[in-house]
């Protein structure tokens, strides 16, 4: 009799070079993705006079500092992009540079290029590396010291996390998306609820998601404290990947798919923790506070108290009154983009709401990659955004983190399709409300947080 | 990096939950080279908003904070900001996982304590600096006269005490890595990027 294994077990075993007596594993890294922020890692490597162990498995991309609007670029931003270019060229790695037609946010282009595949171990010096787990890859963010270690050895030391299975049974309602599923479970379990766990998402509502939706769900795992999110690959996964530039071809493709079909938790696999959620009960969800756990259905009200948590400082920062209806919250601007919700399907959803309607507040739309940008233009989505009065910008992290200068001004309130409503995240003193791209579009049209569902009626 | 086993210094309380790494160091400072020194960036916006911030009133080595400290972005710069300021230990009920890993790689202790212990310490400390003593060997600390135990992963404890550097540690396994790589790609040839 063989022991039932979880997806995490299978992925761990195929990458474990060795395990020390203290339980820490040395894991082989199949893909290492670097960006401008990796400069600390390259500097540490240079200080040790070491070279890259596997440049053929290392890929660089300009995203965090990428200018998305025309005009002058601040010297420190230009320097960050230049430094990555210099490091990439010296190391001999493939770089998706600023003007590369395939440039974009690292967690968008990895899958788009077929660099992300089921069964791989993927690291990047970025916490949203959990995104790639949507393909059944073991993917997690690391800090600069670990980046240096991976550059030097193509391995990473890691303790095996516990496993949490979150099952979404049933079907999502119309206008409800993977973003709402994620905010829903994070609100239920807390922003540290899954700390120390790898989350595997399962159930009918997860299987029904497109790859874009699965990526959104896995992307947000880190906002619930989990370093890794996982979804078993299936035909939807394989169809997405076939023909991508770095994906296997011919006989190698067939062999790969045969391998990938083994990548699922065995029926009787045991998880350390299990949570069941009824997908049909999830409403479009928004955040009111400064942590992703401060999330509620759009039909709700700003809380008066939140367990033992002192929310006065949060309400103060957010400029909100306890007890007010969420739909009463007026916004100053909107943002659609980021590695969470900057993919083609996200733009299609937002455009479906915006078609033939006008935004009453200004807003920025930044596609997740140059290829997404091109596709959105070809499909006529860009035109819908522009006609609605929103600005159509270039690809990059943009207003998700504001490193490139796309900032929300102090005291301004932004309905945002991003992942973090932290104090100061979108700019000093900025007030962020997280929600799905469709909900952002609805807020743009009405000028306040709005339930998108009635606005989608009659639209297919 | 040199290790440490015991520490004596003053401690302050930051009595909030979810002090994320975006707060610990706002993104706009992250294009600075480390040689610039990151201490001045620590909790920059919070300190600007509050001229009476405890970090500006006391030269603390120890921080007691609310749950989910260091959550969010993987930016190791958050640890650099703490360490460059002079902080060597943070006590909190829970920590962002990536942050905790980054911390130990820079000699910063992330000591996990129960919620009620954190609440008790914060009540005792209020807005003043108190004396703190830490012993990594025993896993105990005295803060504001209160003797407390803390949880620390044994691997991380050893790394902090010995000041171990992972790259040096891994070097001894380089043959095993080479062998692993060959077997891995032989078994999964599709795992090598095609173009
Ligand atoms: S889009 Fe935002 S969350 Fe995603 S990688 Fe860029 S900065 Fe990080």
Can you tell me about this structure?
- The complex is a heterodimer of chains A (460) and B (195).
- Chain A is α/β, with parallel strands linked by helices and 460 residues long.
- Chain A contains 17 helices and 19 strands.
- In chain A, helix 2 packs across helix 5 and helix 13 crosses helix 15.
- Chain A is globular and about 55 Å long.
- In chain B, strands 4-3-2-1-5-6-7 form a 7-stranded mixed β-sheet.
- Chains A and B meet through strand 2, helix 2, helix 3, helix 5 and strand 8 of A and helix 5, helix 7, helix 8 and helix 9 of B.
- The structure holds iron/sulfur cluster.
- Iron/sulfur cluster binds next to helix 12 of chain A.
Q: What is the compact description of this entry?
A:
The complex is a heterodimer of chains A (460) and B (195). With 460 residues, chain A is of the alpha/beta class.
Keywords:
heterodimer, A: alpha/beta, 5-stranded parallel beta sheet, 17 helices, globular, B: 195 residues, alpha/beta, binds iron/sulfur cluster
Q: What's the structural blueprint in terms of helices and strands?
A:
The complex is a heterodimer of chains A (460) and B (195).
Chain A: H1 7-13, E1 16-19, E2 24-28, E3 31-34, H2 39-47, E4 58-61, H3 75-91, E5 94-96, H4 106-112, E6 121-124, E7 138-141, H5 144-153, E8 155-159, E9 162-169, H6 178-189, E10 197-202, H7 204-207, H8 211-219, E11 228-230, H9 235-241, H10 250-260, E12 273-278, E13 285-287, E14 295-297, H11 312-318, E15 333-336, H12 338-341, H13 344-354, E16 363-365, H14 370-378, H15 381-388, E17 391-392, E18 413-416, E19 431-434, H16 437-446, H17 453-456
Parallel strand pairs in A: 3-4, 3-6, 4-5, 6-7, 9-10, 9-12, 10-11, 15-16, 15-18, 16-17, 18-19
Antiparallel strand pairs in A: 1-2, 2-8, 13-14
Chain B: E1 6-14, H1 21-24, H2 44-49, H3 54-57, E2 62-65, H4 77-85, E3 89-92, H5 97-104, E4 109-112, H6 115-125, E5 130-135, E6 140-143, E7 146-149, H7 154-162, H8 166-171, H9 174-187
Parallel strand pairs in B: 1-2, 2-3, 3-4
Antiparallel strand pairs in B: 1-5, 5-6, 6-7
The structure holds iron/sulfur cluster (SF4).
């Amino acid at each position: 009799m063989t022991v039932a294994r979880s997806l995490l077990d299978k992925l761990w075993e195929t990458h474990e070079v060795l395990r020390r007596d203290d339980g820490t594993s040395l894991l082989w890294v199949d893909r290492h993705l670097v960006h401008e922020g990796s400069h600390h890692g390259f500097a540490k490597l240079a200080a040790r006079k070491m070279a890259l162990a596997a440049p053929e498995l290392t890929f660089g991309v300009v995203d965090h500092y990428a200018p998305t609007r025309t005009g002058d670029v601040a010297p420190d931003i230009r320097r960050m992009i230049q430094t990555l270019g210099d490091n990439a060229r010296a190391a001999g790695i493939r770089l998706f540079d600023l003007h590369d037609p395939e440039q974009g946010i690292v967690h968008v282009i990895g899958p788009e290029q077929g660099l992300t595949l089921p069964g791989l171990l993927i690291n990047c010096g970025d916490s949203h590396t959990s995104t790639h787990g949507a393909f059944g890859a073991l993917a997690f963010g690391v800090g600069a010291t670990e980046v240096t270690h991976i550059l030097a050895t193509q391995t990473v030391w890691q303790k095996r996390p516990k496993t949490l299975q979150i099952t979404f049974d049933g079907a999502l309602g119309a206008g409800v998306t993977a973003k709402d599923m994620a905010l829903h479970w994070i609100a239920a379990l807390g922003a540290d609820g899954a700390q120390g766990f790898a989350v595997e998402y399962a159930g009918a509502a997860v299987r029904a998601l497109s790859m874009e939706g699965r990526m959104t769900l896995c992307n947000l795992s880190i906002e619930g404290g989990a370093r890794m999110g996982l979804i078993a690959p299936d035909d939807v996964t394989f169809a997405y990947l076939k023909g991508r530039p770095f994906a296997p071809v011919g006989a190698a493709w067939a062999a790969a798919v045969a391998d990938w079909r083994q990548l699922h938790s065995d029926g009787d696999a045991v998880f350390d923790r299990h949570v069941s959620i009824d997908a049909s009960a999830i409403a479009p969800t928004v955040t009111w506070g400064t942590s992703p756990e401060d999330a509620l259905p759009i039909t709700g009200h700003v809380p008066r108290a939140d367990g033992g948590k002192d929310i006065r400082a949060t309400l103060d920062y957010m400029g909100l009154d306890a007890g007010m209806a969420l739909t009463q919250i007026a916004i100053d601007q909107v943002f659609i983009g980021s590695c969470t919700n900057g993919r083609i399907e996200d733009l299609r959803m937002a455009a479906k709401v915006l078609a033939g309607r006008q935004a009453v507040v200004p807003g920025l739309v930044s596609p997740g990659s140059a290829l997404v940008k091109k596709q959105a233009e070809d499909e006529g989505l860009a035109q819908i955004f522009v006609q609605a009065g929103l600005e159509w910008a270039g690809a990059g992290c943009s207003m998700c983190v504001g490193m490139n200068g796309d900032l929300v001004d102090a005291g301004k309130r932004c309905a945002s399709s991003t992942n973090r409503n932290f104090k100061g995240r979108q700019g000093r003193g900025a007030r962020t409300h997280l929600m799905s791209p469709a909900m952002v579009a609805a807020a743009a049209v009405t000028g306040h947080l709005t339930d998108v569902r009635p606005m989608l009626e009659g639209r297919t | 990096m040199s290790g440490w086993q015991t520490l004596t210094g003053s401690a302050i309380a930051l009595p909030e939950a979810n002090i994320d790494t975006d707060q610990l160091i706002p993104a706009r400072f992250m294009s600075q080279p480390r040689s610039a020194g990151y201490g001045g960036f620590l909790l920059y916006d919070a300190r600007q908003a509050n001229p009476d911030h405890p970090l500006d009133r006391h030269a603390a080595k120890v921080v007691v904070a609310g749950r989910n400290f260091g959550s969010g972005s993987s930016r190791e710069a958050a640890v650099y900001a703490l360490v460059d300021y002079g902080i060597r230990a943070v006590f909190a009920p829970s920590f962002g996982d990536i942050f905790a890993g980054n911390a130990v790689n820079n000699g910063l202790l992330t000591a996990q304590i129960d919620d009620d212990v954190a609440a008790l310490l914060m009540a005792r400390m209020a807005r003043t600096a108190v004396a703190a003593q830490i012993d990594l060997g025993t896993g105990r600390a005295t803060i504001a006269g209160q003797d407390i135990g803390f949880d620390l992963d044994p691997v991380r404890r050893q790394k902090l005490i010995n000041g171990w550097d992972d790259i040096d540690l891994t070097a001894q396994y380089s043959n095993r890595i080479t062998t692993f790589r060959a077997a891995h790609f032989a078994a999964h040839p599709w795992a090598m990027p095609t173009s």
